[in-house]
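From the methods appendix. Each design record in this collection lists the tokenized structure first, followed by the designed amino acid sequence. Records were kept in a plain field format so they could be parsed without special tools. The example shown here is representative of the layout used throughout.

RECORD:
FOLD TOKENS (160 positions):
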């Protein structure tokens, strides 16, 4: 039965859910049901198995960043940013941001007016974006901010 992977990026992390459509005896779709996380990994989807394994390995190294419930998986933005592109794709996450990150400063570092500014560019033109943790929203779509770019942006955010 075809499955749909969805994610919800919030301020504190990302929740990933796999669901499938239920059909009645005539084959008519009747409702959508969550797939138990214990059933996520099977022989037919090695990519999903690798992705879940990568998140579990991240949790082993950084406890408290990945939580698996009965029907969903919640991971911190740092955990999601650590995924390689095939693993992120297997979890239904967006592709990496295609833009160039430019980091600049204003003011004197010895004064209160010092700022570190991060801006995104596409072909030399500035791009309007909104960042939600490891995700970047733009008029071009939603994108994932991978490591080490995510760590750089997090450090800038903490500095400001």
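DESIGN:
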């Amino acid at each position: 039965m075809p499955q749909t992977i969805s994610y919800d990026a919030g301020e504190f992390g990302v929740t990933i859910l796999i669901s499938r459509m239920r059909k009645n005896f005539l084959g008519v779709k009747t409702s959508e049901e969550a797939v138990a996380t214990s059933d996520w990994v099977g022989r037919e989807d090695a990519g999903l198995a690798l992705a879940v394994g990568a998140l579990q390995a991240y949790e082993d190294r950084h406890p408290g960043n990945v939580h698996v419930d009965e029907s969903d998986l919640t991971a911190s933005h740092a955990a999601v940013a650590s995924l390689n592109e095939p693993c992120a794709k297997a979890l239904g996450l967006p592709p990496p941001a295609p833009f160039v990150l430019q980091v600049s400063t204003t003011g004197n570092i010895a004064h209160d007016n010092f700022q570190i500014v991060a801006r995104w560019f596409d072909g030399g033109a500035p791009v309007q974006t909104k960042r939600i943790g490891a995700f970047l929203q733009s008029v071009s779509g939603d994108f994932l901010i991978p490591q080490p770019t995510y760590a750089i942006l997090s450090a800038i955010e903490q500095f400001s």
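APPENDIX NOTE: The CA atoms of residues 64 and 155 lie 20 Å apart.
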